[in-house]
């Protein structure tokens, strides 16, 4: 399964009582899919995987699969302890997911060999393709990345570290030593800001949180990058993405909370975030509106 295009990570809507709003989720996913993403990644970081219990998770994935209607693959997040991760993987299978985004193990600092074992144990219980997410406490060396990439159903590595030297060595090592299709992803928050640098080391794919609330802006940037329109790319980066990142960095967790607020501002009531995240302050919402307006102005 080779992915292409902008990758859509939908939010998980909550109602006024804090319960998952599955009907709103279906509408959110259908709207996103109609814009033409390369894949849907349900109940992952932007979808507040950390805040979902197993039953909620399974239904969120099932709703995303149904709403996508086979138009693009649906990957589901899974992570935590080995035992918990296996439960989420099995739930994703029951829900009809096409693949798994394997999130880092919970909390602990991991030796490299332990990370390989973690991925191998999870991969052994499923035939679903797995994309491994490198971030926080899950950091692979070039050698351990090769070991993981050789696991038959591991098909990709998504990078959330932003260490381009380390990532370049990983990319070179895997491509030289792994004889199967294998894809690399830029998984940094607001990945567009770093995508030109990732493209330079051979990483073409990236996740786009902006696609959740403004797919036209996300696709405008993507098309400008693909066509080599450097002037327009730089305008998107300076006039839209840079202010968005500066706002995002003011409060931990805004990488999710601002996205959800922007979806609400577009007329879909996806509710707020679950603890320990917090919803944006009023002055930040006003700044967000101005940033989105600047992004949409670039479309003309």
From TrEMBL:
The keyword Transcription regulation does not apply. Belongs to the DapA family. It catalyses: 5-dehydro-4-deoxy-D-glucarate + H(+) = 2,5-dioxopentanoate + CO2 + H2O. This is Probable 5-dehydro-4-deoxyglucarate dehydratase. Pathway: Carbohydrate acid metabolism; D-glucarate degradation; 2,5-dioxopentanoate from D-glucarate: step 2/2. Gene3D superfamilies: Aldolase class I. Pfam families: DHDPS. It is an enzyme of class 4 (lyase). HAMAP family: KDGDH. PANTHER family: 5-DEHYDRO-4-DEOXYGLUCARATE DEHYDRATASE 2-RELATED, DIHYDRODIPICOLINATE SYNTHASE. NCBIfam families: PRK03620.1. Keywords: Lyase.
């Amino acid at each position: 399964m080779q992915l292409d295009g902008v990758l859509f990570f939908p939010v998980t809507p909550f109602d006024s009582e804090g319960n998952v709003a599955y009907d709103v989720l279906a509408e959110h996913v259908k709207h996103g899919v109609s814009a033409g993403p390369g894949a849907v990644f349900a109940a992952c970081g932007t979808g507040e995987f950390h805040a979902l219990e197993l039953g909620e998770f399974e239904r969120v994935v099932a709703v995303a699969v149904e709403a996508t209607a086979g138009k693009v693959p649906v990957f589901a997040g899974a992570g935590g302890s080995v035992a918990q991760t296996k439960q989420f993987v099995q739930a994703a299978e029951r829900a009809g997911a096409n693949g798994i985004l394997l999130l880092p193990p919970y909390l602990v600092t991991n030796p490299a060999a332990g990370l390989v074992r973690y991925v191998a144990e999870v991969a052994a219980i499923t035939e679903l393709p797995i994309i491994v997410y490198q971030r926080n406490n899950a950091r692979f060396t070039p050698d351990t990345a090769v070991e993981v990439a050789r696991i038959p159903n591991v098909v990709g590595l998504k990078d959330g570290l932003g260490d381009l030297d380390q990532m370049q060595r990983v990319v070179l090592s895997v491509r030289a030593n792994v004889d199967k299709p294998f894809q690399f992803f830029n998984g940094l928050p607001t990945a567009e800001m770093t995508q030109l640098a990732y493209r330079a080391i051979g990483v073409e794919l990236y996740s786009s949180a902006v696609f959740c609330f403004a797919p036209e802006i996300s696709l405008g940037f993507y098309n400008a990058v693909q066509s080599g329109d450097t002037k327009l790319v730089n305008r998107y980066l300076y006039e839209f993405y840079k202010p968005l990142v500066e706002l995002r960095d003011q409060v931990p967790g805004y990488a999710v909370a601002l996205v959800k607020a922007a979806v609400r501002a577009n007329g879909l009531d996806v509710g707020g975030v679950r603890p320990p995240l917090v919803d944006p302050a009023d002055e930040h919402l006003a700044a967000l509106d101005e940033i989105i307006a600047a992004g949409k102005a670039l479309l003309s």
